[in-house]
From TrEMBL:
PANTHER family: ALTRONATE OXIDOREDUCTASE-RELATED (PTHR30524:SF0), MANNITOL-1-PHOSPHATE 5-DEHYDROGENASE (PTHR30524). The lineage of its organism: Bacteria, Pseudomonadati, Bacteroidota, Sphingobacteriia, Sphingobacteriales. Residues 27-261 form the Mannitol dehydrogenase N-terminal domain. It holds the Pfam family Mannitol_dh. This is Tagaturonate reductase. Keywords: NAD, Oxidoreductase.
Amino acid sequence: MNTLSKTTLSVIDPQIPVEQIFNLPERVLQFGTGVLLRGLPAYYIDKANRAGIFNGRIVVVKSTATGSTDDFAKQDNLYTLHIKGIENGEAVNKSVICSAISRVLTAQQQWADLLDVAASPDLKLIISNTTEVGIQLVKEDVLSDVPTSFPGKLLAVLNHRYQTLGGKEDTGLIIIPTELIVDNGKILKDIVIELARYNNLSDAFIQWLQTANRFCNSLVDRIVPGKPDAILQEALTQEQGYIDHLNIIAEPYSLWAIEGDAELEEVLSFQLVDEGVIITPDIELYRELKLRLLNGTHTLCCAVAILSGFKTVSEAIQNDAFAHYITNLVFTEIIPAIPYPISREQAETFANKVLDRFRNPYLNHQWQSIAMQYSLKLKARVVPLLSNYYKIHNAVPLDMTLGFAAFIRFANTVKTDDNTYISTINGIDYLLADANADVLHAAWSAGGNTLTVVERILSNEALWGADLTAVKGFATEVARNVERVFKAVIY
C-alpha cells in the first residue's frame, strides 16, 4: 500500500493539479502545528488553491522542541482530512487531501530560514494558534537569539521584514490569531508594541508596526480531535486505501469569523470558496452564538448527562428524553435570553447546526472533559443568560434550573489525601477539576438542609459575579431539583 506523498498524489487523487499546486508561492506564515489549524485555515486555503483563487501555500512554524516533523517531510506536507458527521440532518463522510502546507520549519533549528520567509514580498498573512497561554507578554531580547514566546517571535519576524524591505506601507502584513481569547488580535498587537518598546526598537519601526500591519480579531469553531489512535488509524488506512501518518478527522461544521472590511476580503480571497469564512466589521454576533448556544448548552447539560449515566455527547442526545430536554432548553430558554441583538432566525439556524454537531457519532466528546473548570464556564456562559431570562420574563427558567442543580450535585465531593476532589455518581468516581473545587466542597461540608447548601453556593458572588439568590424563586427551584437528582437517574 502506497504512502501519501507528492509522487503518489496523482494516483491517489488525480483531481489535484500536482505541479501547479506545488509551485505556488508561500503567502502564509503559520505559528502552530496543531490539528485545528490543519482542519480549518489550511482546509480553506487548500480549497481556494484548487479553485485557482488564493494561489498561495503555508509555511508552518513549529515552536516547541518536543515532537517530530518527520511525517510532514516524508509525505511532502500532504495529509488527509476526513470530514465526518451530521449536516442538515444528513450523514456526511468525505475525505480531502490537503496540499496547502509547503514546509514545516522548527524555530530553534531553522530560524534563518524562517526570517527568509518573513522577508519575502510574497508573504501576506500570518496566522497563529499557540493556545491561550501563548499570547502573553514575556519581556525578552528578541534580536540576539530565537525568542521564547510567540509574541517575541512575531516581533522578530516583523522587525526583520521591516529592516529588509523597508518601512513602506505596502510591506505590512495581515496578522490573525485564532487563540480562543476575546479581542485576540487587539491583545496580540498591544503585547507586540509593548515588547518593541522594551527592546528599544526605533520609533519609525513602531510606527510602521502600528499603521502598515493589520491585527485582526478572529473566532474559530470546528471540532478537530487529536491524532487518531492506532485502531482508528488502521480503520482510516483501510478506508482510504493508502498510508497517511498525518490523518485527521473534523466535523462538517466550520467557522472562521474575522473582523475586517472589503479591503481585507480582497487579500483573504479564500473566503470566496467557503461560507464558513466570514469577514465582518463585528464578530461579536458569532462569538455570542457560539458562547451561548454551543458552549452554554454543553455546560448546562454536562452534569445532567453525567448523572444520567451518559459518557459522550452523541450518546446522550440519542436518548429521546435527554434530546427533548436539550432541545427545549435551547429553543425556549437560551435563545430568548441571549444578551445580544440576534434575530430569532439567526439563532435558530445556528441552534439546529449545534444539535447536528451534538449528534455526530464520529466525535468521542466526553462529558467528563466538558466538566473541566465547570464553575468558571457557568459564570461566563450561563449566568448572563439566567439574568437576562429573568429580566425579560420575571420567571425562573426551569431547564436552566435543572442544569444548575445537577452541577451542585456533581460538586458534592470528597477531598482526597492528595488534595483532589472526587464526586461519586452512580458508583463511578469523577474528578472535579475546577478552580473553585475547594469552595464548593466547603459549601457542602458546612452542613444544613438542601436549600441551605444551595443558597450558600448560589449567593457566593465570588463564584458567579452576582448573588444568584436574588433571582426570585431560583434557589428554591434549584434545591427541589437537587433533591430530585439525589433520588434517581434523571434520564
